[in-house]
Amino acid sequence: MTDQSPESPQTPPSPPSPQSPEKPERRPAKPFWPRSGNPLATVLIGALLAILGFALAVQLRSNAATDSLSSAREDDLVRILDDQNSRIDRLQSQITDLQAAKARLSDSGSSDEAARQEAQRQSDALAVLTGTAAAHGPGVRVAIADPGGTLRAEDLLDVVEELRGAGAEVIQFGPVRIGTSSAFTDGSSGIVLDGQTLQAPYEVLAIGDPKTMDTALNIPTGVVSVLRNAGGQASVTEQDSISITALRTVRPGKFASPAPR
Fold it and tell me: 205 φ, ψ to 5°?
């Protein structure tokens, strides 16, 4: 009887080695801006963004103004409306005066005399506006106190700008007649206006419609409120007659000269 050797055990097959998953092919991201090969699209996108930015800025300013007016009292709203109506009346009066001057100059029967009278009237008006002649008329007196010495040049400049916006024709700040070249600066010993150091308390005289200027200075978030928040105090007094005697010296232009006719 022959012995049969047992069969040798078979080696189990090795499991297949795992294969790394294939990575998807990455596509290059498309740029937001068009390629330089299409300049028209770039210009259009830039214009649209500029329009969008402008519209957003206008909307924000409109919302801010609406919020400011929505919190105002009824009396304040009435004063603001009166201020706007006064400005409209003032501009309409200027238009009427210019139209009347044009009619006088176009009159062939008295053209020479009308021209001389109009030239004199313009000369007198320019002398007052440039500060080379004294002026008087109705207006307001503004008293500004600075007990803590916290007011700065920009705070006083706001007073002048608000008065100009309200139709002030002549302004005197302290001893200085305000002109087109007037400038407020912060100096080591105080606020300087056109080379003269101002000392508190300050007095401002302005000729114009008293009611309009008073309303403009005292509206909510107006100059009086701004000065109070900055540490100062301001009071406005309407007056029927104010005399402004401070004068300015008109210097000839360094670069500008009358254009040839």
Answer: -115, 135
Distance from C-alpha of 211 to C-alpha of 79, rounded to nearest angstrom:
9
For 106-165, give the DSSP string: T-GGGHHHHHHHHHHHHHHHHHHHHTSS-EEEEEEEEEEE-TTS---HHHHHHHHHHHHH
pLDDT for 72 = 62
Three-state DSSP at 182 gives coil
CB crowding 96-107: b at 16 or more within 10 Å, else e = eeeeeeeeeeee
Sign of CA dihedral 39, 44, 47, 53: negative
What domains, with CATH codes, occur in the chain?
73-248 (3.30.70.1880)
Residue type, 231: G
DSSP string, 29-84: PPPSSPPTT-HHHHHHHHHHHHHHHHHHHHHHHHHHHHHHHHTS-HHHHHHHHHHH
pLDDT tens readout for residues 41-68 = 565 566 667 776 766 665 655 555 555 5
Output the pTM of the full model: 0.59
| pLDDT one-digit tens code per residue, 149-189 | 999 999 999 999 999 989 899 999 999 999 988 999 999 88
137: region left, alpha or beta (phi > 0 left; psi from -120 to 50 alpha): left
Say if residues 231 and 166 touch (Cβ distance below 8 Å): no
